[in-house]
Structures are given as C-alpha cells and as structure tokens.
Amino acid sequence: MKLMKTLTLAAALSASASTFSYAADAKVAISDLNWTGAKAIAHVIKAVIEGPLGSEAEIIEGLSDQAIIAAGMDKGDGSADVWTDMWMPNQQGPWDKFIVEAKTVAHNTPYLGTQQMYVPAYMSDKIKNFEDLNDPELAAMFDSDGNGKGEYWAGDASWKSTKIWQVKMKDYGLSELWEPNIISDATFKAQLKAAYGNQKPIMFYYWTPEWIHAAYDLAPLAEPEGTEGCIDLKLDGEDWLEASKAACKTPDAEIFVSYSKSLEQRNPAAAKFLSQVQFDPATVNDWILKIGRDEMDPQDVAEEWVAANADIVNGWIK
C-alpha cells in the first residue's frame, strides 16, 4: 500500500519538478517528537524528501530528547538533522547556543502557536472578551454544580498553563464569578463534544495547533495586548496565585523547523527545502485531526497531502 502511494506521489510531482536536478545525498535524520503536530510535520518532511527530492530520510525512532536533537544538529554527523517543531521562546537556550552563537543550526520561517480562552462560535454573540465575563447572569449559564460560579476549563492539573489561567482570571477581576474546572485533556474533549453537540455553554483554554480547531467552530476571547510588566509569574511557591501577575494576552509562540547546517554540504537540496518550508496553522490542525482523532497513519496522511498539493510543495523545493 505504501509503495503504491510513494509511486503515485512521485508521479504527481514529476511534471513540475522535472526541470530541477536534486542529488540523493546523505540520508536526513528527522526527530521523533511525541506530540501529534510534530509527528505530522516529521512525516510531511520525510514524504517531500523521499518523493520530489528523490533523496532519503528517516524519522529516528525515540529521537525525542530536545537536548540530544540540538547537540546532534550541532555536530553535523547525521545523528540528528531536523528538529521538526521547535517552539520559541520555550527553547531559547539551544536557539542562542547553536543558531545565534555557533551558527551550526539554521531554520525556516515559523508559523504561530497561540494560547487563548475559547467558546464555541454559537456563544460568540454573548461573549467576545474578558470584560463580558463580568456579568453574573452570564456566569450562571456556565454553572453546572449550582454553587453560583461559572466554570471554565483551565487545563490538566500537571500543566503550568493551568495555574497561569487562574492567575489571569484573578487579575481580570473574575474570581468571584468564575472557577476553574481542572480535569484531564481527554475528559475535557469528551465534555466539549457533548456540549457542542447540544449547543450548550462551555468555556475553555486551548492552543493552536490542535485538531479541535479543525473539528469545531470556535471563537477566542479577546484579551488586552501585552505591555511591559503585565506578566510576572512566580508559580513555584505556595502563594503562587497571589504572588503572580498575568493581566494581558499571552504572546504567540513562534514554531520553527530547525536543521543542521551541515546538510548544506551533505544534502544541499534537503537543506534548501528545509529553509523554505512554511506551514499554515489551519493545515497543521487538519493533519492533527486525521492523525490524533481519526487515528490515520501519519505516513498515509503526509503522502496523500503532498500528492494533492504539488503547487505548495514545489514552492518549498524550488
């Protein structure tokens, strides 16, 4: 099955790629990060290198430790060539060490990752921003246990972001009307499915990219733009809620594909492709939907998408 898809993929791209000559040089070693968006991107990169570039690539099973990935790209020995989903500023340390200082690692143009509070689009006429939440009648619509407070999903108990959203609700002056619902991601997704299917109120933290944005029509709540000092987090102490401040929008993350600059000699066509590849968040959401929710094989998703989007792929490899 996969052999036939590979042959179909090569045929679909051959006409527009035929005017270019690509050397099948060193095999490209791709990271194996454990979240669905990174897995999708890894398989798309592999499908392009093995398809229109006519080269070799391998997703190295278990290559998920980001310090090891960065060190391998720095060495340039082929042990790790591609970090598929490098979130910034989360990875400021390796960015500064290998991209800025050593200049042994390069990167593409990033796509943006966001963290926001959402309601289903059918609630967007009632809630557009956090100021709208300062309404007891509105909060009562989200009160499922009858204690007088509306609930919002803040995240899993183990997540740093779960504390951050509680700090935000405090600093937006909403703690008297709203309380966090702290449950697992899987339990929340079951609640979202039920609420959406019945057009019921539900409010929740989430991020992009993720498949729920492809599955549901969601509306983010507007927040005040960031200013100097509007976020000051001290989340490790016992008094973390009172000691921390978060009174503005969380800055968007920039998400890069980074790669070993040694590929410029070892596999120039792959290096050029990796410098030019650029992802659309809505497309990544769709890949995650198919892989994460629908349980499709990531390789099948990647090969089918690459074969169906030759114009985009050829823009990456020219």
Distance between the termini: 29 Å
CATH architecture of the largest domain: 3-Layer(aba) Sandwich
Q: Element order, helices and strands?
A: HEHEHEHEEEHEHEHEHEEHEEHHHHH
Mind summarizing the main beta sheet?
4 strands, antiparallel
Determine the CATH topology of the largest domain. Answer: D-Maltodextrin-Binding Protein, domain 2
Please report which band the strand proportion falls in: under 5%, 5-15%, 15-25%, 25-35%, 35-45% or over 45%: 15-25%
How large is the count of helical segments?
Answer: 14
Anisotropy-based shape? globular
Instruction: Just give the CATH class of the largest domain.
Output: Alpha Beta
Detail the poorly predicted runs.
1-24
CATH H-level homologous superfamily name of the largest domain: Periplasmic binding protein-like II
Number of strands: 13
Rg, please? 22 Å
Binned, the helix content reads: 40-55%
Describe it.
- This protein has helices spanning 2-17, 36-50, 66-75, 92-101, 136-141, 160-171, 185-197, 212-215, 240-243, 263-266, 268-276, 281-293, 298-308, 310-317, and strands spanning 28-30, 57-59, 82-88, 105-107, 111-113, 115-120, 150-155, 178-182, 204-207, 218-220, 231-232, 245-246, 253-260.
- With 318 residues, it is of the alpha+beta class.
- It has 2 domains: 2-15 and 25-112 and 254-317, D-Maltodextrin-Binding Protein, domain 2, CATH 3.40.190.10; 115-246, Glycine betaine-binding periplasmic protein, domain 2 (D-Maltodextrin-Binding Protein, domain 2, 3-Layer(aba) Sandwich), CATH 3.40.190.
- The strands form 5 sheets. Strands 3, 4, 5 and 13 form a 4-stranded antiparallel sheet that branches. Strands 9-6-10 form a 3-stranded antiparallel sheet, with no helix packed on it. A two-stranded parallel ribbon has the order 1-2.
